[in-house]
Specification:
heterodimer; A: about 325 residues; mainly alpha; 2 domains; B: about 525 residues; alpha+beta; TATA-Binding Protein; 4 domains; seven-stranded antiparallel beta sheet; five-stranded antiparallel beta sheet; 12 helices; about 35% helix
Chain lengths: ~325, ~525
Amino acid sequence: MPVNATLATYGDWLYNSAVGVYILATFLYLYEQAFGRAPAKAKERELVVAGGTGEQWKPGLVVPKKPERPRAERFGRMAVALTLLGVLFHVSALVLRGVATGRAPWGNMYEYGALLTLAAVATFLVLMRSFPVRRLGGFVLTPVVILMFLGGTALYAPAAPVQPALQSYWLVIHVSVISISTGMLLVPGVASLLYLVKSTNDAKPERFARFAGRLPAADTLDRLAYRSTVLAFPLFTIGIMFGAIWAEAAWGRFWGWDPKETVAFVSWVVYAAYLHARATAGWRGARAAWVNALGFLLTVFNLFFINLVTAGLHSYAGVG
Amino acid sequence: MRDALAFLRNTWRGLTAMRTALTLLFLLALGALPGALLPQRALNAAKVDEYIAEHGWWGRLLDKGQFFAVYGSFWFSAIYVLLFVSLVGCLLPRLWEYFTQMRAKPVLTPRNLSRMPHHADAHVDRDVAEVMAAARTRLRGWRLVEREEPGGARTISAERGFLRETGNLVFHFALLGLLVAFALGKMFGYEGQVIVQATGKQYCNSGVFNFDSFRPGLRVDGTRLTPFCVRVNDFHASYLHNGQAQSFQAGIDYQSGADLDTGTWRPYSLEVNHPLRTEGDRLYLLGHGYTPKFTVTFPNGATRSAEVQWRPVDPITLLSEGATKFDPPQVTDSEERRKNQLAITGLLAPSAVFDGTLMSSNFPEARKPAVAVDVFRGDLGTDSGRGQSIFSIDRSMVDNGRLKKVARENLEVGQSVTLDDGTVIRFDGVTDWVSLQVSHDPTQVYVLVFSMLIVAGLGASLAIRRRRVWVRAVPRQDGRTFIEVGGLARTDQAGYGGEFTGLSRDLLTGGQDKES
């Protein structure tokens, strides 16, 4: 099937626009984080949630005392609106890629990265509805913007059909599930790192004093990390299994310790360890958070190092 | 004796503690990593040798520590065996507890429900019996028990989310099952690769000697392979203009099972991602390359043709190398034969471009095949007892002067070169070969079943929450009833709030704003 170059070009423009909009949103989120009210009030709200009247915190439902909202909060809301706009561009970019090439738009690292970051942003937007973490948007969007920038420059691949080994409906299934679950795992990774900052500050108030004071409570961050991991981990498991089923059809064995398979297995074990650690005395809290952060590091390592440096069956980067 | 028992018990306890299991999990992750970072013998033996040669003592040390065969190494095996034992040790008591709990009744209602993490109360006009009846209706689907308390109060203890532990156990036992099935597959499975000319040549899975390479499981001795035969009729590849492959397809006929006796051939289109599945075995199309055809006319007028596969050295342009070897015809004396053996060796370009006399290939398709060959005459060393590759000549025979280069030529299809003794070598063209793999894994379907159980168990154990709710209805002097509701999530508190709010509202109002 011939590639529609015009559509592909529009897709790339939309991708770049999404990056631009995300960068703008990042600054607005960070402004809210830096200059918004110190979260004394936010803490009260969280206590209410923990206390269990079931009142769910929604970013839009806080009734302001004055009709005029403080500037920081307005910026925060603008950031959310911009993130939604970015997601719109982001989705359109992927759709246009797909239409232009006549296949699922996740056949090389540029496209894979685009889907992964989209999943990360979408997960954060969804979780923002149940957790008071809007102002953390900047910390989620920063790695997203970095990944998208790398994807759009160093890893960029023009629209083209994929090689025979990838021409299978499993490309649609396996790669999308893996990419989406990896993207979802970005959110708990960020939340766990912030948890570590916050809990260090709770133990020794002089450390990270300026920064941690404005973060949500450690408990909230811990629950955010857990809830998003619990969503993403089964999906990641399914993704690995789909990969094994595909490998059985394409390479003659369902598991062969290919470098990518190995690192996926390692990160799976690390996330399993996180779930166990969170239920084990002595490992709860900071240690579990380290494990989760390690898990995300491994998925990023798997994405870049294994695809670009080692030679394995998964070397489909389409780079160089 | 007592000390020994105590030691055993303590070891068992230590091994089955969650902290140990966690440590072992980390060790497993850490131990698996070198397999991704270092070359592995099972995947690429040549790369391992290269690595050891490059890194000197460090490479040899890693080799001693079995770091080039991580997943069969003693230390990796030790980790997973310990983890396996630890897992069994964790699971057995849990399974016991699970069955005990399944029969146990929900616990007594605590005296002070307002101390529960979730709590609500109200005074209502209905009497105790009515409240209890409404509560029972609302709590349909919960495991519940109703109790009387002194003073006429009645309570309901209800529990839900038992499936969480079910899922948990299913997940862990399925994990054990998967490991066992995986191990059995490694013991009784095998893989064999073979190159077959795509010109109607046959391959039969009747013995190990038919394979070019064979990787048996630990309990496979190479006998009793599943019998089937394959005939490769043709091969088609299509490419994008930049040389990227778009599709590979081999037209084959195969016979297996009863067809072997009747001689029936069934057609199949073998493609990447579409293996042939027959009699529990699978046949894969792994790769392809070109076979040059050379015809040699010897000085005495005899002609011989040979078609031997050459192997690609450049995966993009399929520039290939190889060696096609000839014995002189009608020579019975082995001494004489060893003086006049011929070898045509060099490069084959499917789409040749020449820079002066330097040949290279610019496309993987056989658009303009050509070869750049050296012709050697003399003793090829095929009688020497040393094995030699079909893709190259034995260089030592050249070095010791028993094999001499007699021509170097670039040949396009139809062109020929005449040697000093009048021998004419003609390049007739190229045909395709395909590389096939036969895989046998008797347990992989069980691995699949256990994987599905793993996903189901994992989903249940992470999505379902174990939670309790208690209702107490106390009759008041004025004829009204005081209802108290308390809730406790036993595993993850987050998220129970929403459900409890709805539940307590219904329980306190008697479900009046809700049908049923």
